[in-house]
């Protein structure tokens, strides 16, 4: 099964920018992928998704500030974050939902998460 590894998290000051990466161990061609985050004491929430055709969707809280993208040749998905706010502090996860592909159904897959802290 494909494995996902997030990277790029760290400490950034308010108003700053950061780019997260999600590297897949195998090809991501033809699959939908998404970014989620979980702040302390909060439920995990979907913040952005990107389809195999490149269509994107964002939660209102990040629209205009975050950009989701993918590079299938590198088996990698990205989340470019700008105008960061303290409330963006969370563990960020990438995900491939359960979907049908070569060989039949493939299970939902999550990365281990990367911590983003927005603070002065």
Summarize the helix and strand pattern as letters.
EEEEEEEEEEEEE
- Report the uncertain regions: none
> How many angstroms does the end-to-end distance come to?
40 Å
- Identify the overall geometry: elongated
- For the residues shown, what is the average pLDDT? 96
Global Rg: 14 Å
Number of helical segments? Answer: 0
Question: Helicity range of the residues?
Answer: under 10%
What about the largest sheet?
Answer: 7 strands, mixed
Number of strands: 13
SS-based class = mainly beta
Task: Reconstruct the topology from this structure.
Blueprint: E1 4-7, E2 10-12, E3 18-24, E4 33-38, E5 45-50, E6 56-58, E7 66-71, E8 76-81, E9 90-96, E10 99-101, E11 104-106, E12 109-110, E13 114-118
Parallel strand pairs: 2-13
Antiparallel strand pairs: 1-3, 3-8, 4-5, 4-9, 5-6, 7-8, 9-12, 9-13, 10-11
């Amino acid at each position: 099964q494909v494995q996902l590894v997030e990277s790029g998290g760290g400490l950034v000051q308010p108003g700053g920018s950061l780019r997260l990466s999600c590297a897949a161990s195998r090809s991501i061609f033809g699959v939908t992928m998404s970014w989620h985050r979980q702040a302390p004491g909060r439920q995990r929430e979907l913040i952005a998704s990107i389809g195999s055709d490149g269509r994107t969707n964002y939660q209102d809280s990040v629209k205009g500030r975050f950009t989701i993208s993918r590079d299938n040749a590198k088996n990698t998905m990205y989340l470019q974050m700008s105008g960061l706010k303290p409330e963006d502090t969370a563990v960020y996860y990438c995900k491939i939902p359960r979907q049908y592909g070569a060989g039949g159904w493939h299970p939902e897959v999550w990365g281990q998460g990367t911590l983003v802290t927005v603070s002065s």
